[in-house]
Fold:
Amino acid sequence: MANKYVQIMPADDWYFVHDRSDGSPVLYKLIGWALDEQGKVEGIVAVKGQDGAAVNAIPRVQGSRYCHVSRFSERERKALESFAQRG
Structure:
């Protein structure tokens, strides 16, 4: 069952970050912070489903975290730059 959000706020320059099995970083750009009916706050990302655009919570991954771009490690910063150049 999908979460029902009661409030959504922007998350400018925030990412969900974790490492692949080879150690390379995976970065998901957050579009916002969502507050659900139980009072839990989670990061959300844009997804494209069968019905068009939607938002979705990110499943937790071991070792994952939310991180502002200003707090990225050098390795994460390089991954973001590489992704932007392909963009």
The beta strands are 5-10, 14-19, 25-29, 32-36, 41-49, 52-57, 65-68.
